[in-house]
Amino acid sequence: MFQRLVDLGRVLYSKLIGYVLKFGVVGLVGYVIDVSIFNALRLGLFGEGHFFQGPIGAKIVSVAVATLASWFGNRYWTFREHRRKNYLLELAEFTVVSVGGLAIGLLCLWVSHYLLGFTSLLADNISSNVVGLVLGTTFRFVLYRFWVYGHQRSDNLSALRDKADAPVS
Known about the structure:
mainly alpha, globular
C-alpha cells in the first residue's frame, strides 16, 4: 500500500515538473516577445509620432502580443491535453488570469515604492521583477492549471474525448 502511494506521488510530481518546465519555456518566450516589441516600438522601428511609440501604448501592444503568444504556447503545448473546445472562452479566461498576474506585480511595485518608500531603481526592480514576477507567475500557473485548463472542466477536449469513448449504456 505504501509503495503505491510513493509511486503515485512520483507520477504526480513528474507530471507537475513537466507542466512547470513547459510553462516556464512558454513564459520565457512571452517575456522575450514583450520586451522585444516594447523596445522596437519605443525606438520608433514601426514609425514615429504615434501613441504606440510612447511607453503606455508600446506596453499595451507588447503585452497583448505576448499574451496571445503565451496562450497559444500553453494551449497547444503545456496544457494541450486539457485545452478547451470553446477557445474564445478559454482565451478570455486566460487573459483575465494574465491581467491578474500583471496586477500582482504592479501591486508589489506600488507597495514597495509608495507605501514603504523604497524609491531607488534597484528597489523598483526587486519589487516588480523579482517579488512581483514570482508571485504573479505562481498565481498564473495555479489558475491556468486548475481553472482555465482544469481537468474537471466538462468542456475540455480530453473530457469530451473520454465521453465519446465511453460505452453507451
